Structure formats: C-alpha cells, structure tokens
Amino acid sequence: MVALHNCQNSANGLNQEESASIHLYTMQFDGGPSLYHVLNQSLRAENREDLKPWFLYLKLFLTALHKLPSQTETVWRGIRDVDLSSKYKTGMKFAWWGVSSCTTHIEVLEKSQFLGKHGQRTLFSIQCINGKSIAAYSYFKDTEKEIILMPGSYFEVMGQLNPAPELHIIQLKEIIPPMTLVKPPFPKSDGQKASSIVHKPSTFSPSTSTMMTSMQSASVASKKMTS
C-alpha cells in the first residue's frame, strides 16, 4: 500500500502498479530481509520451485523495467567483505541471473551499507548497454542514482586491477548473448522499438513461467558466480 501511495502513472508509460513494483523493490524493511534480497536469492537458486511465489510480481516488475529506456553508460557495483577476482578471469563470458543494482556515481559506494572503505571489497566497473534508470521510482529518489541490470544480462570480463591489498576492481562489458536468455514479458508490436536485449528468435512464450524456465536451463556455473 505504501508503494502504491507513493507512485503515480509515469511519462514512460508505466501504470501505477508497475511504478509501485519498482518502488517496492528499492524499499528497506525493519526487522527482516528486504524484498530485493529475498527475490535475488530465488532468482539465483537452482530450484525453479523457489520462483513460483514470485511469478506475479516478476511479471509486473519486468514489464515495468522493459518499458523504461535503455541506458548505455558505465555503472558501478560493489560487493563488500569478499574478493571475487578468482571467479572472473579475463576473457570469460557469463550471465548474471539476479536483478543487479548498480550506480552511476561511484562515490555512493563509499557508504558503509554498500562497498565501504575498509576490508576485502570487489568493485565492478560495468559498461552496460541495457541498464534501466530507476531513480525516479526509487524509495530513495536521487540519493543512490540507481541503474538496474535485468536478469539474464550477459557480460565479458575485460580485465582486472588490484590498486590496494583489499580492493579488487573487475571490468565488465555487457555484450549480446549467444541466444535469447530472457524474453520480454510482453509482445512488442512491429512498430515498437525494443528496449531490451532480444537478439534471436525464440520459442519461449512471453509468460513469466516459461521465461524462468529458460533462465533455469542455462549454465549453473554462471548462476553461482552472480554477485
């Protein structure tokens, strides 16, 4: 109800429910895990049954994201308390199956709730081609400058840098996948320009259920590397 109250129809063609689905994704909850944390656990799980409770929300959420214009720019994503450099070798290609939250402002990651300034840290520099800016719909509005990378985003590792003993920078480039990994949640008319990555014909239906089946059929190794 709070998310619906805070949202209205948007200039990008989102209705109130679609705007609220993005707003809800960004909200923090007292006394328990946030929606985005639980959702991403399910998206990255090997058991497809874990996704069933999310089908209706995912249909709404992904529809909203696909309606937003795509952003081509460099974004940043930080993972604290871990060194992931050994899992991302230069030249390797992989998909991230979760909803990946990034920022266009690297200084945001210095805050303790994100990357911080101390301890083991992995910083991803990502040249994206299909990022979705959700700042206008976020619970935090302009404070995080958040860009979303959708489930099934596909990358190549371009290089690594270790500028400090506990800081590991990994450079990624979003690229066209070898096949359609996730089909849009709604059909597009002939005259409508696609805002999402759909590169090859696919027999998958646009329903969330079959969309998730295609995600589950991809490499388990890629899923386990998701940050």
TrEMBL record:
Secretion signal span: none
* Source superkingdom: Eukaryota
The record's InterPro entries line, in alphabetical order, gives: ADP-ribosyltransferase_ARG (IPR050999), ART (IPR000768)
Q: Residue ranges under compositional bias (Low complexity)?
A: 202-227
Please tell me where this protein is predominantly located.
secreted
The family annotation for this protein states: Belongs to the Arg-specific ADP-ribosyltransferase family.
- Quote the protein name from its UniProt record: NAD(P)(+)--arginine ADP-ribosyltransferase
